[in-house]
Specification:
Layout: E1 5-14, E2 17-27, E3 32-36, H1 43-50, E4 58-63, E5 66-68, H2 73-78, E6 81-84, H3 96-100, H4 117-130, H5 146-159, E7 164-168, H6 176-191, E8 195-199, H7 203-209, E9 212-217, E10 220-226, H8 232-240, E11 258-266, E12 275-280, E13 284-289, H9 295-302, E14 310-315, E15 318-320, H10 325-330, E16 333-336, H11 340-344, H12 351-356, E17 364-365, E18 368-369, H13 371-384, H14 401-413, E19 419-423, H15 431-446, E20 450-454, H16 458-464, E21 467-472, E22 475-481, H17 487-494
Amino acid sequence: MTPILRLSGIHKRFGGVTALAGVDLMVNPGEVLGLVGENGAGKSTLMRVIGGVHQPDAGVIELDGESHDRLTVPRSIAAGIAFVHQELSNFDNLTVAENIFLGRMPTFGGPLRLVDTRRMIADADALLARLGATFTGDTPLSRLSLAQMQLAEIARALSLNALLVIMDEPTSSLTATETDRLLTVIEALRADGVSIIFITHRLGEIERLADRVTVLRDGRHVADLDRADITAPHMIRHMIGRDLKSVYAPPATPSGLPILQVTGLKTPRYPDCTVDLTLHRGEILGLAGLIGAGRTELAETIFGLTPARAGQVSLDGQLLTIPTPRQAIAQGIFLVPEDRKQNGLILDFPITQNISLPGLRDLSRRGIVNRKAETLLAERQKKALDLRAANLSLPASALSGGNQQKVVLARWLALSPRVVLFDEPTRGVDVGAKAEIYRLMRALSDHGVGVLMISSDMEEVIGVADRVLVMHEGRIAGSLSRDQLCEHAILSLAVGQTHPEPTP
């Protein structure tokens, strides 16, 4: 069998930094190849080489047995290589069909080249039917869920007659149910002879899907695993170069008094629903539910990003007024947002300034920042969080996803938090960085900080939380103690099924 793609000895340097050092990779027809590695291992650079975005400094690329020393973007597309990126590139103001065939819409011909809308929708419907989609080509994209948008993106890849589809973290923003549907679609594509390179930090998905796994570490190809050897411990060992006894920090049984109490809170999205919850000192409280259940809106309202319609927030028994994040920060309530690039960092700013930003008042005198103190703060936080950056003067955009998340954490940990709200804290983060973030969360709780963790990752919720609240359509549907935690119980509450009376 001739591989559809084979890479041999791929090298790539950016200035003095080696991104890829002699990487080999092979994909066979109708195969799902799992590609794993820590953030910064070289996965994205390698995919850009395959897509023709980056030109390798050395090495050979073979497509269907034909050798190339480099590819261009048009040549990659013509060879049947398509991408489904973690950050979707859809246009909400267009229909599904228009998104699928953007730039390639069928026309009637003639001088006016009018778009043949009927044919375009019919072609889109055929692709969507192949994926088992329940929506049609004439549906406005703005009406779709994130999981449905993923299907539209895959349909676009198939419309290019793709023989190889590269999927980069396609499930990072999906719920467990939506993820299962997408993985079923991928299995169907494999059965149809489509090859997949599947990149994810969720190793359980790799265990389910992959026929083989290629592992990268520090820009090098360190292992190939056959189907029988694809287990999370094997992958982790090769990814980080050692055994990881447990990703999760040991659970605790908090005995502290309530630190944060929310009573009758109404958010702008769900003005007819009230939320009551109690977070105890030293507790990691999980907040689970389907996407759109109102979890992020609740955290943003507590933090003062959006005004509450009604209700009260108390900290250590003291009633608070939090009209803006400034007041929340002054009280020691901090939010680690879901979208770190959009809402958590100033990507063009140096790492040092991203860390110091919320505490500039303490680092300034008469409006002038003490740069020496600012640098010392950043260096201290770098060491405490094992932040991997060659130079703290680099822009935050130069960091991997896991290290960007550490920068967001570093700025808040420097300010002595009392309550930290984590919204999807490990989205797009590798397993080693996940373990470090979980340990940081547990260290916070051990020091009496209240931790509220919003997560769509069922394994994460069960592995990390001391107690879990489940939201459904703007309300708390139920509360689960540590010994009650299981996927069935959480999903039942998330979809609105009955459960014993919830407790705040």
